[in-house]
Amino acid sequence: MPLRTGVRCAVLIGDESQLPVQVKRKATLDADFERSLFERLISLGHPRHLLDVQYRMHPGISKFPLSRFYLGKVTDGPNVLQRDYERKLLAGPMYGPYSFIDIKGGTESSGEHGMSLSNTAEAAAVTRIGERLFNESVRSGQKLAVGVVSPYKVQVHAIQESLGRLECWAHGGREGFSLKVQTVHGFQGAEEDVIVFSAVHSNSHGSVGLLADWRRTNLALTRAK
């Protein structure tokens, strides 16, 4: 509609490597309504300008998404290459710029109507990490913004409930520390100092569910500083 008001110049800003608008009805999916105008114009060969420097992520975090999803066309800015950009928030060899944590014994389970998934072992692990980050923020006096991201709403609710039972949250937390729990889609356009990603999936047939859409994986992996 805005393009029908006689404008002489229109600038579209977007990233086709992240998630489009959510479309649920089969008829609209079949009609390709989730495909944005931005994507359609690119596919038709219209010229575009790529913002090819990222200033958010530590290089250890950005290395995979920049090579896999942006095909090496985006590079790290000088600010994130500085030695002091790396923050060691938790003690221990497993906590670097990024960490993969194997949750042994965790299994996925279906929510109501089987439309969403959760993993209680992962929710418990995320809660422990959130508590440790809170305690370290209190001890050091550092301000810290934490985001917890999951593809599934049921897992988001499970993590919120688990965190809500912690004594530190029961007393209102502390000024300078924030923790948000959202779906991947809900975190689009956002960033935090630390992101904890709960992938949920643990099954015998190798299914990754919603993460089969590489744009969702890209979005989840690029929210952290």
From TrEMBL:
Residues 34-225 form the DNA2/NAM7 helicase-like C-terminal domain. GO terms for cellular component: chromosome. It holds the Pfam family AAA_12. Keywords: ATP-binding, Helicase, Hydrolase, Nucleotide-binding. It comes from the Eukaryota. Coiled coil: none annotated. GO terms for molecular function: ATP binding; helicase activity; hydrolase activity. InterPro entries: DNA2/NAM7-like, DNA2/NAM7-like_C, P-loop_NTPase, SF1_C_Upf1. This is DNA2/NAM7 helicase-like C-terminal domain-containing protein. The lineage of its organism: Eukaryota, Viridiplantae, Streptophyta, Embryophyta, Tracheophyta.
